[in-house]
């Protein structure tokens, strides 16, 4: 009898922990504003940017209002699940833009007019090669799986959503299983993402090569056909697309498409499956106890 109670309690804890994991994963809102910190090539301080790609530091806001030379905001925090190796913070020297203060001149002590200095965000990568975002600006975002610039797979199949290969690769980065230590590594990682998403090469980042180590990591887990298959409905890797659009007054215009970015938000379908498994196991334990 004690054994059955132990099993039942354990499964109840599993079900409850699943619910807690779901609540934590959904702590970030599905839409809001984002500020992207760039690297030295564009007047910023993120050393892991490589050419037009590589890492950008994303800081999410549940509320951000810009009026003249002042800005008020509420940071939304980093989504649950990111490893420390996939985090970054807004540093001095970010370029200024049309709608968000920035460009404190790189001072080591003076925050200047950039109110975001010191805020921790997560490292992200862009999905499209021919859609831009403008340095020093903030953008509206909505989470989803679709992309704003379709790609073409190696078999000439249109790619209209986040692919399984990119989702797997970014998940491994987000949870710390892949650690990028140099800008060159970040550039190779970016090139692998663009290829798996069916995007064209970019000589400023480095053209894709079949010997790309991050591409080979993906092929160790799935075929190329599977890796370039667009995800629909849900993502087992917990990765989504931050579909960026411009706020009023942006160069791309209100609602205009801007360069989509990646975000790790553990998939709630996994939580639901764990919860269902927990309920089934509780039912099994109860039936066993009644039979005894």
**N-to-C terminal Cα separation, in Å?**
8 Å
> Main sheet?
8 strands, antiparallel
Oligomer: single chain
**What is the string of helix and strand elements?**
HEEEEEEEEEEHHHHEEH
Descriptive keywords:
single chain; 292 residues; alpha+beta; eight-stranded antiparallel sheet; two-stranded antiparallel sheet; 29% helix; 23% strand; disordered N terminus
Q: What is the secondary structure topology, with strand pairs?
A:
Blueprint: H1 2-25, E1 31-37, E2 49-50, E3 53-54, E4 56-67, E5 70-75, E6 87-89, E7 120-124, E8 138-144, E9 146-152, E10 158-161, H2 164-174, H3 183-196, H4 213-219, H5 224-227, E11 239-245, E12 261-264, H6 268-291
Antiparallel strand pairs: 1-4, 1-8, 2-3, 4-5, 4-7, 6-7, 8-11, 9-10, 11-12
Helix pairs in contact: 1-6, 2-4
Provide a descriptive summary of the structure in words.
The protein has 292 residues and is of the alpha+beta class. Helices cover 29% and strands 23% of the residues. The chain contains 6 helices and 12 strands. It has helices at residues 2-25, 164-174, 183-196, 213-219, 224-227, 268-291; strands at 31-37, 49-50, 53-54, 56-67, 70-75, 87-89, 120-124, 138-144, 146-152, 158-161, 239-245, 261-264. The strands form 3 sheets. Strands 1, 4, 5, 6, 7, 8, 11 and 12 form an 8-stranded antiparallel beta sheet that branches. Strand 4 (56-67) and strand 5 (70-75) form a beta hairpin. Helix 2 (164-174) packs across helix 4 (213-219). The longest helix is centred in the N-terminal third of the chain and has 24 residues, at 2-25. The chain starts with a helix and ends with a helix.
